[in-house]
Amino acid sequence: MWLKHLPIFSALRLRGSTQRLYTVGLIICCVLGLSNCIAAFCGSNRPGTPSGKRVEVAQLLWKKVIGRAEIYMPAISKLNIIYASCDHRGFYAFSTKGKYLWKYDCCAVDSPPAVGPNGYVYFWSDDGTAHCFSPRGKPVWTFHSGQASWSCAPQFTSPGNVLFGTSKGAVYCLNNYGRKVWKLVVNSNQNDFDAVSVICDQKHIYLASRTKLSAFSENGQVQWVRTIKSQIKSGPVLRAKSMICIATSSHVVQCYDSNGSLLWSKSFSGACAIAARPQDRELYIMVENEGLYSVSNTFHIQWCVHVPLTRSSQPNGQSNTIIPPYAAPNDDIYCLLKPKLLGKVSFSGKLLWIYKLPAPGDTTPVTGVGDRVFEATFGSNHDVSCLLAIGTRN
After folding, report:
1. What confidence tens digit (pLDDT) does each residue in 312-371 have?
2. How far apart are CA 209 and CA 110, in angstroms?
3. How far apart are CA 6 and CA 304, in angstroms?
4. pLDDT for position 304
5. What are 60's strand-pairing partners?
């Protein structure tokens, strides 16, 4: 055989069965090396696939019908429990494997839930009541304000208090026993108030109203207020070094420092939605009909995934704002590319997979255990809301 004339066999002076063993091993190594070269070559020519890596394929793991009304962005606890609230008399708890755990019947729930550091879940119902439940579905406390909430999840301050906002321009800070610590009236003119979100870091509470970005201390004292020329549509989101970012209705993304100073302001050609991780410097910007951008603190564009992003639709057929992406803890980014297309993008800007949803996605996707991502959808006529779990296989 020609392999026995190779210098390696002459140098090692292999004979008999030993020579045959080494010959077989060398053939296997050659075959494996050739296959890896072919895989790397094919992977490099495949759009959105990292070179030399196996292709991920998304698949539906389970689907749960929640109700016949709007469903809000779910929340996931460290106990692998996923909570979903519906604008149709119901608050649900499932395991991340799709097992039904418990349900609380109440009036319509107008905001997404949130899981606190103590493992309890918090949400706000349409009758102006704040609820706190244990992971087993036991009511811990309720707080009645008589004011409906805005459509953002509760937030938690460093002392362990929880923040709830109302559609009448008030923010409530409650302690672990459901007692009011303080109440802050952001805007007494209800027509001028349309809160988008509230976030917290270790020193400040940031609130976005219709045309105002405000910062407060943990005891509810105003630190600064900035007036925005157009309505805030996405944000605020926190980045590293306490940077606060917002996106406006005039297709402008702005970044402020913790003192309220404007760091930069950039315009885009279409509607924008943003996301970030508080510990990272990257800001992710979804732009209508352009794609998903990753930018640095100084607005250096690191990469862009060019996909035809479109707006979600309202029941009356009118276009709504772009749904913000989700920056997962494992550095991946999940986003709705179109109303029925869910995409996964890597930290380096590689489009890993696209999954076609059975109905238009209605919320920002969230991740749970492993590679599972959860998305809430509406039926084609906005008559059925569902919670989907989507996983991947290689």
Report:
1. 444 433 345 688 899 988 889 998 887 788 899 999 999 999 999 888 877 788 886 667
2. 17
3. 50
4. 92
5. 390
| Per-residue pLDDT at 72 exceeds 90 | no
Q: Could you tell me if 235 and 196 are in contact, meaning their C-beta atoms sit under 8 angstroms apart?
A: yes
Mean pLDDT of the chain: 78
- Within 8 A by CB and 6+ apart from 364, the residues are 73, 275, 323, 324, 325, 326
Write down all domains in the chain, each with its CATH number in brackets.
2-44 (no CATH), 53-72+243-394 (2.130.10.10), 99-227 (2.40.128.630)
CA 45 to CA 51: how far, in whole Å? 8
Phi, psi of 41 (to 5 degrees): -65, -45
pLDDT of residue 10: 46
* DSSP bridge partners of 287: 272, 291
> For the whole model, what pTM was predicted?
0.79
Higher pLDDT, 94 or 241: 94
Distance CA 227, CA 230 (A): 9
306's tokens: 């060019």
pLDDT(11) > 50: no
Q: Do β-strands 283-287 and 272-276 pair in parallel, antiparallel, or remain unpaired?
A: antiparallel
